[in-house]
Write a structure and sequence with these properties.
Rossmann fold; 8% strand; 49% helix; 11 helices; four-stranded parallel β-sheet
């Protein structure tokens, strides 16, 4: 069933997850009721409001960690111990949420959330057929963006954010080792006018590549100016 095979988009915040999700949506995927533009995401956030507010953040709080996914971070071994009953409930809650928002199963759906990778075993167990897009960016560029972004508050120095980036990279490796169906995207390539990686991913996921929409959506000034989307 289509509902059991979503596209999950994740990666470090300030890597370009919103840019990537925006193109996925323009090429035909359904995202539901998503957050719009902000000072730091001028093209939109493309993150489902209800999933983030009603499930992602409360779950992180239940673990006693930062609901913003900054610090402290979840202990992945604790997440792996999640009961099957909790996994089943998570699946039902997510499916019920998107259905209430109007999802009818006739197209592929996506959820974009930078914090997803921080508790990926729950998502992977609830949706074992999910296809994952992991958005990547050079570590030093993520750190620079974090230091310029108002809501990235947990660290004041580059060393703290570099540690945080490394924690995400560990999660990506764990996901690979667990056999998740992963597609890597480096948005910098799109900023440099090379859309081949994104095109290949879109087509591999069964969506319809739309070069004109993608090119018109990408705004290099927001990226290079430190205002890169999440």
């Amino acid at each position: 069933m289509m509902i059991e095979k979503p596209i999950f988009i994740t990666g470090c915040a300030r890597s370009g997850t919103s840019m990537t999700a925006g193109i996925v949506q323009l090429c035909g995927a359904w995202g539901g009721d998503t957050f719009g533009t902000t000072r730091y995401n001028k093209k939109g956030m493309f993150e489902n409001k209800d999933i983030r507010q009603n499930f992602t953040k409360p779950y992180l709080r239940s673990l006693g960690v930062d609901p913003l996914g900054q610090h402290p971070l979840p202990d992945i071994d604790t997440v792996k111990l999640t009961t099957q009953a909790t996994v089943d409930k998570w699946f039902r809650n997510i499916c019920d949420t998107i259905k209430k928002q109007g999802y009818n199963g006739n197209q592929q759906w996506y959820y974009k959330g930078a914090k997803m990778c921080l508790f990926w075993p729950l998502w992977a167990r609830a949706f074992p057929e999910a296809r994952w897009i992991i958005v990547r960016r050079k570590s030093e560029d993520i750190v620079k963006s974090c230091l310029k972004t108002g809501f990235m508050k947990k660290f004041k120095k580059a060393e703290g954010w570099m540690w945080w980036v490394d924690q995400h990279k560990d999660r990506f490796l764990e996901m690979e080792e667990a056999g998740c169906d992963i597609h890597y995207i480096w948005p910098q390539k799109m900023i440099d006018f090379d859309l081949s990686e994104m095109k290949k991913t879109i087509e591999t996921l069964g969506l319809k590549w739309d070069k004109d929409k993608a090119e018109s959506f990408i705004e290099p000034a927001y990226w290079s100016g430190g205002q890169s989307d999440g």
